[in-house]
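Quick one, tokens below. Sequence please?
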């Protein structure tokens, strides 16, 4: 431990694999400054086989909470002793809190994060529109229920492994709202361009060509990437080639979900404006 850390009152981190790209520490520093908290916020890289051990170690060494990122959101749900309603609905959590009695609480703030970013920051109405979610992993689990609550006309989940998309539809099938439809990328070829496309895959990040048919986005589409980067992401470059009307990275969602995590941990909801302006290019 560094000397300066002896004065730190609370200790948090984000855990993922890989995680070195994460800008969550920048965001939480802005929030801690606003609330007057003394908070340290670390990056923990843990491969799936070492995830539980890494959480246990952080907890045992004075950690008070964790943000969870790819690929651990479903594992974090499984190790939670209690779960908030959004986490239970998703079967995945992105926020862990270590309770005073030693138990671990899991919450999912991804859904509220994306809904706030789309509807408030982007002023984009979701009711009655056609939404396509690309990907069926932990990130999709968190956003699916809240997107269905916004009453789109249609919600399609397309995934490389179709079974994963079917599993997700089955998981949400107790939901009172209309069911989403699961399909392969190939099946998207016959469909009209969607109003809103959300990329929740990690496709393209290793330089491979994106497997999404170009016809599913068009000149009236809003293409939203859950990923964020100081450069244009592969999905947003793909969207530009499809002449999409509007594109956005997931920076706003990251900021909004972080503010909800901060609220859970500290009972204080930070103003997100300063962090929203502090985009990755300038962070
Ligand atoms: P996260 O928690 O971010 O959702 P994840 O649970 O590992 O991460 O899910 C990653 C998603 O990206 C999955 O939908 C995955 O598809 P599979 O279910 O077929 O694994 C998708 N994905 C990853 N690499 C991809 C690629 N090269 N092409 C298409 N989809 C890809």
């Amino acid at each position: 431990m560094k000397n300066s850390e002896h004065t730190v009152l609370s200790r948090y981190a984000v855990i993922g694999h890989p995680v070195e790209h994460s800008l969550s520490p920048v965001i939480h520093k802005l929030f801690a400054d606003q609330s007057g908290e003394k908070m340290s916020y670390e990056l923990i890289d843990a491969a799936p086989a070492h995830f539980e051990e890494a959480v246990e170690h952080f907890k045992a060494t004075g950690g008070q909470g964790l943000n969870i990122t790819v690929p651990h959101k479903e594992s974090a749900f499984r190790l939670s002793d209690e779960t908030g309603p959004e986490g239970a609905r998703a079967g995945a959590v992105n926020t862990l809190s270590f309770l005073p009695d030693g138990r671990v609480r899991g919450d999912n703030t991804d859904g509220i994060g994306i809904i706030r970013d789309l509807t408030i920051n982007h002023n984009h109405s979701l009711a009655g529109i056609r939404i396509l979610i690309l990907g069926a992993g932990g990130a999709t689990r968190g956003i699916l229920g809240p997107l269905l609550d916004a009453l789109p006309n249609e919600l399609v989940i397309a995934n490389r492994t179709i079974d994963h998309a079917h599993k997700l539809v089955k998981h949400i099938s107790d939901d009172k709202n209309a069911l989403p439809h699961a399909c392969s990328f190939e099946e998207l070829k016959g469909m009209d361009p969607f109003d809103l496309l959300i990329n929740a895959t990690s496709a393209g990040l290793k330089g491979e060509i994106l497997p999404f048919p170009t016809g599913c986005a068009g000149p009236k589409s809003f293409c939203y990437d859950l990923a964020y980067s100081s450069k244009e992401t592969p999905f947003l470059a793909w969207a530009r080639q499809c002449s999409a009307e509007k594109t956005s990275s997931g920076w706003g969602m990251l900021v909004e979900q972080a503010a909800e995590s901060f609220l859970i941990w500290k009972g204080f909801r930070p103003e997100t404006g300063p962090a929203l302006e502090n985009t990755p290019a300038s962070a």
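The chain has two domains: 4-108, 111-251. Residues 127 and 151 are 5 Å apart (CA to CA).
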